[in-house]
Amino acid sequence: MASFLSLLFFAVVFSVSLFLLRRSRYRRLRLPPGSLGLPFIGETLQLISAYKTENPEPFIDKRMNRYGPIFTTHVFGEPTVFSADPETNRFILLNEGKLFDCSYPGSISNLLGKHSLLLMKGSLHKRMHSLTMSFANSTIIKDHLLVDIDRLIRLNLDSWTDRVLLMEEAKKITFELTMKQLMSADPGEWTESLRKEYVMVIEGFFTLPLTFFSATYRRAIRARTKVAEALTLVVRERRNDDRPRSDMLGALMASGDNFSDEVIVDFMIALLVAGYETTSTIMTLAVKFLTETPLALAQLKEEHDQIRANKGHSEAAVEWCDYKSMAFTQCVVNETLRVANIISGIFRRTMTDINIKGYTIPKGWKVFASFRAVHMNPEHFKDARTFNPWRWQNNSEAANPGILYSPFGGGPRLCPGYELARVVLSVFLHRLITRFSWEPAEEDKLVFFPTTRTQKRYPIIVNRRERGPTRS
Ligand code: HEM
């Protein structure tokens, strides 16, 4: 008993001394202003409780007003520098791999797979990232992907009658599209059963990542194994099949890099994960914002009815030139991405002491570059918290959009799906608007805080438009 007590005593003394030592080092450095909150817990509880309310913005607003756009906090067990400063965010993004490293908890790696692009670093990351960019660039979308995007969206919308759970439908569309693009898999029983497993994997990202405590996490790990097994079979079959394929799997195998089955499977899972919640949420929110902004909806309707009328046939395929003619749609896409901010920012870890804007961020600290805080700042965007697609019409709002506007990140980890996501959303809006009118169902209205995950499904009541638009 006595030895246990002395051990406990030394452990406490050691932890407290470490804590004080760190504090005194931090005091010597010129850290960004802010508060580290309570020992160990920091300000995590304040952050969590802010995101449980209807308006989470004050957590950031309050600190920005008090300390400025770069401040120190302590969340999820670590001191973290929060940046709402556009130039600092840019600096963080561009110095990925040199001064900052991406940093995800181990629990994420269990679900994504250790070869996932999101976790890769160094030269392999560079190679995989540029391959991924080449799979989803505008030429590939124009020549190969657009026809499937349009076809699969139409196919899904064909079955819509009366009450539709928009978020669910958007997720189904997104998954089917990704499966088609990745491995030429058409929707069917196999893709649907894979989707069910996959949904369980996704649940794992939003739960306590402890196998012992969380049944959801355990289920997610089991589902991940099943998804990986199913995809491994596809890869093996493909290795014995000489027919040329114009999908991402085909391109990956033909790249001459000799990737192992495991690398390819992790790559595919990463693409499924990265594009799923993001694209489907943005599809749902665009409809929500448009529903709440009738003038924008009317202008969009006019644009799409005109495109349809010019084509003469309501089922004619959407072509690249149609997409390029959707000028106001692009304003809606920009604005939805600005206001919705599915990925509100990115975490990185400092690889060395970083001096920035007169402050020092110590080596090993986490930094959070918040895109959302910039997008929501009235100093950068007039009436920043209002959905206003017209602000993009002559782009006068953001004099330097590369710095002020970054929904897809930037630098070496710029989202490889940025063009794809825009095209999917534009074609989806085109088909939705030219086929249906809609109103939100009374119950279960979408309450959405873009930085937290919503379980809401945004039901809408759809009505088929009587006659398709005619030539004007
Ligand atoms: C509205 C939709 C989307 C948004 C807002 C979005 C946003 C982002 C952001 C901000 C990053 C940077 C993460 C970081 O720097 O750590 C990123 C990375 C990534 N995105 Fe997207 N994304 C979207 C859709 C897609 C789609 C459709 C794909 C599929 C091709 C995709 C694939 C990826 C991948 C693989 C990465 C990791 C890149 C890397 O770490 O090198 N995303 N995305």
UniProtKB/TrEMBL annotation:
It is found in: Membrane. Its cofactor is heme. Keywords: Heme, Iron, Membrane, Metal-binding, Monooxygenase, Oxidoreductase, Transmembrane, Transmembrane helix. Signal peptide: none annotated. Pfam families: p450 (PF00067). Pathway: Steroid biosynthesis; Plant hormone biosynthesis; brassinosteroid biosynthesis; Hormone biosynthesis. SUPFAM superfamilies: Cytochrome P450. Belongs to the cytochrome P450 family. This is Cytochrome P450. It comes from Acacia crassicarpa.
